[in-house]
From TrEMBL:
Superkingdom of origin: Eukaryota
Gene Ontology terms: biological process: fatty acid beta-oxidation
Entry protein name: ECHD2 protein
Database matches in Pfam families: ECH_1
PROSITE patterns linked: ENOYL_COA_HYDRATASE
UniProt cross-references to SUPFAM superfamilies, sorted A to Z: ClpP/crotonase
Keywords (A to Z) from UniProt: Lyase
Length: 222
């Protein structure tokens, strides 16, 4: 996906009705020794980092339970859409654990430090509407009979992104992801570098031409 230029948006969904991702298999985890657990969680953290580093926008379609590592997977995505009936939570403390695949870092960056601490300290599960009210998800929708309402809304969101200039979108994602980690002056420099990479693109020229000619632009990702 990283190197396929035809890929413009990635949507993560589950094939299991009622479950986005239930997290780690604790029965399997119980059979591991301490070293194996550490290695397993490190690999999981690396996987989430790889997802977060995908150059195109990513959307998590949360149509059911997203618990523990399942919510960490959703947090590794750029955007999240949830059914109102979905259940989400970093529940690790209820099992004698703490989030280990990015949850302690990505949740506070998403909802703020205070709310993140409350959710992690308590291991509380919240529904899609609560998640929306605290900014954990971008959109919440009533669940449908097929059980894929969040996925359908995620597709609609993806279709809003598709017509836009691919390189500009990628550079926008990069600028946000890099800039959020540094002070504002450094962030401005990062934005400037990303903007400079977009200036020589054919799509930028097409965008200007389409505006002058009062027609929709035809972006090609070049």
């Amino acid at each position: 996906l990283r190197f396929d230029e035809k890929v413009r948006v990635v949507v993560f969904k589950s094939e299991v009705k009622g479950v986005f991702c239930a997290g780690a298999d604790l029965k399997e985890r119980a059979e591991m020794d301490d070293a194996e657990v550490g290695h397993f969680v490190k690999r999981l953290r690396n996987l989430m980092d790889e997802i977060a580093a995908l150059p195109v926008p990513t959307i998590a379609a949360i149509d059911g339970y997203a618990l523990g590592g399942g919510l960490e997977l959703a947090l590794a995505c750029d955007l999240r859409v949830a059914a109102s009936s979905a259940k989400m939570g970093l529940i690790e403390t209820t099992r004698g654990l703490l989030p280990g695949a990015g949850g302690t870092q990505r949740l506070p960056r998403c909802v703020g430090v205070g709310l993140a601490k409350e959710l992690i300290f308590t291991g509380r599960q919240i529904d899609g509407q609560q998640a929306f009210s605290m900014g954990l998800v971008n959109h919440t929708v009533p669940q449908n009979e097929e059980g894929d309402a969040a996925y359908q809304r995620a597709l609609t969101l993806a279709e809003e992104i598709l017509p836009q200039a691919p390189i500009a979108v990628k550079m926008g994602k990069l600028a946000i992801n890099r800039g959020i980690e540094v002070d504002i002056a450094s962030g401005m420099a990062i934005e400037g570098m990303c903007y400079a990479q977009n200036i020589p693109t054919r799509d930028r020229q097409e965008g200007m031409a389409a505006f002058r000619e009062k027609r929709p632009p035809r972006f090609i990702g070049k």
